[in-house]
Amino acid sequence: MSIAGNSRPASGSEHLISHQLDVMSNEQGLKPGAHGAQVGLASIVMMYLHKGNWQKIKNLLIDIKSPTTIKDLGIDREFFINAVLHASEIRPERYTILSMGITRGRVEEALDYSSAWEILECQQHGDWNSPERSEHNGGTRKKDGAGDNAVDFWIA
Predict the structure, then answer these.
(1) Which one, out of 2, 9, 83, 96, has a CA that is 20 to 30 A from the CA of 18?
(2) Residue 1 placed within a domain
(3) How far apart are CA 63 and CA 55, in angstroms?
(4) 15 neighbors 22 (Cβ within 8 angstroms)
(5) pLDDT of 115-145, one tens digit each?
């Protein structure tokens, strides 16, 4: 930030989402979550929307035992979606992917996709303990990756 002369390098969409979560929590009389944990989850979702390697971010967060889902953070799905949809209002002059008019559907897709990917990882590594998660419930089959690294999974 010293080189840039402002906070822009440390104030991307992920941080805006965390700040919006804090604003919404305060408005509802809730205790705001940990900034770093919120930014971590938002990083997964934003990288998914950027069509980048969100799995790598998620794996790194898992390695350090940081929350990687809204459930891990104790955040209601609708609450998180609304935070993402309104986060650009925190600093409207800052151009981020949020400035491009992210839709509810895209945010839901990112949450579903990243959660389904986690479910697949649990199944592959044998630490699948929740019987209700083991059923596909007539979901949609998705493919992640290409070639030998491609994996199939289901989104309920």
Answers:
(1) 2
(2) no
(3) 12
(4) no
(5) 765 544 444 444 433 333 333 333 444 444 4
The amino acid sitting at 88 is S
How much is the pTM?
0.70
- Confirm whether 3 is domain-assigned: no
Q: What is the CATH number of the domain that holds 60?
A: 1.20.1090.10
Residue 106 neighbours by CB distance under 10 Å: 17
pLDDT tens profile 45-99: 999 888 888 889 999 999 999 999 888 888 889 999 999 999 988 887 878 888 8
**Measured distance CA(91)–CA(3) in Å, rounded:** 21
Query: Which stretches within 5-154 are classed as H helix?
Result: 13-27, 35-49, 54-63, 70-73, 77-86, 104-125
Integer CA distances (angstroms), 153 to 11, 39, 126, 133, in order: 34, 26, 15, 12
Cα(112)–Cα(91) distance, integer angstroms: 27
Q: Is residue 83 part of a domain?
A: yes
- What is the rounded distance in angstroms from the CA atom of residue 153 to the CA atom of residue 119? 8
Is 12 inside any structural domain?
yes
- For residue 75, the enclosing domain spans 8-155
